[in-house]
């Protein structure tokens, strides 16, 4: 038993060392971002680079707020992210329930047609989308930032897979008790889908918070810009102020890290139970 236990302990050690190495590789860019945000411009360009700043320039964060309208960008991004996330949680869950539990003509054809949208690059429909938004007079408004993103084929597919994993006996019992389809959705499926809904919310928050292409094309007024565009303002054609760029990136990244830390358990559970695994 002793040699077997020693061999098993050795294999566990290598697994933990590999995981530790992977963690260091993943965390290193974030630590470098924080380090650079506290350096002077000259030190950020120094060769060889240094991990720990010789002088701590915490005023870089205040300079970010003075250089661009960062708080307005933050507010716009927050409104856009909340609007898109709330919309997807409502619309995608309703569509997923219909595709998973209801029977209606052409259900499979409609579902496959919806999934085919995932194979179309967003750049292909960018010009027609711009023309539609201009016709609706939605350019430089929150409508253009929120409404086109309140539904996604991926979110519908994710929740449909989760709903299909739930026991059908629950639905049959609810029908015997006189529940309508909406009642079953509201009182049976939604309470059991917290992890899947949180997973979809995290996916949507990440996509909305980091979205650059759509807000860049659809907005031109500084009052409607979002964080991704504000951060790119520190990257010039001939020179880049890396300390300010990294300081802005740190302030933009912290909310996403906090959300993931608090909800990672539900996120992993939702992905595992929906059957979407890498």
UniProtKB/TrEMBL annotation:
Keywords: Cell membrane, Membrane, Transmembrane, Transmembrane helix, Transport
Tagged with keyword Cell membrane: yes
One GO BP: transmembrane transport
Residues in ABC transmembrane type-1 domain copies: 74-263
UniProt entry tagged with the keyword Zinc: no
InterPro entries from the UniProt entry: MetI-like (IPR000515), MetI-like_sf (IPR035906)
Compartments it resides in: Cell membrane
Segments traversing the membrane: 12-34, 73-97, 109-130, 142-163, 184-209, 242-263
SUPFAM superfamilies linked to this entry: MetI-like
GO cellular component: plasma membrane
Name of the protein: Carbohydrate ABC transporter permease
Membrane topology designation: Multi-pass membrane protein
Family per record: Belongs to the binding-protein-dependent transport system permease family.
